[in-house]
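Page 47, continued from p. 46.
Same chain as before, 228 aa.
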Amino acid sequence: MKLYLLSLILILSSCKQYVPPGAIASSTKSTTSLATSRCDSKNVVFALQEASSVAWSVAQIDTNAKGPLSSKNPASGQISLVKGQLNQAKGLITFNIGSTSTGDPIRDRLLQEVLFGMSTLNPFRVNINRLIGSSTSVATGATVTMQADGTLELGGRKSSLLFPISITESGGIYLLKGTIVVNARDTRPALNTISLNDKFQTIETTLNSKLGSTLTLTFDLHMKNTCT
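Result:
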């Protein structure tokens, strides 16, 4: 009987917890559990935080105009770093059309429908295809500057983009700042040009105001690494 109990103890003590591929075994003094890792060697994801936004504006060029048509809209989305490399980043950032606020609810509705095409569910977003530069990471408390190559989608129209950005690390949060200036009047396909002339003309007629030819987007994207 003693020999049987000793054999049983030896068998139990030699057993090891099986950990499936891609999982991490975690344990405490009283329990042992499995937790699937959110990290891998191919993709590191930075999610946009609640403070992320885009400020856009179109100049009103009448002599009696009080200022540009402008609004600050919340942003959501994520940036993925292929193999964890900053210069291999891709991302999709979507801006909330329904939060358009220019100071006049009637004008807000006009812009939401005519400029952004909200009722037809057209997205207002920037797709980042890649970041151009030699930097592969951002050190703690540091800032790097790069160029972003991507596309702008607005009101059912698209534009190829190339624009400067900066990324700053602070307390585990990465702030990506950039400004995009696009020619909104030219109907010919070109870099940083989006064909919105017909939409601008409709807005001008309704508001009895002359608009400029450029659309400016300035965004502040607060990103946090979800790979923990």
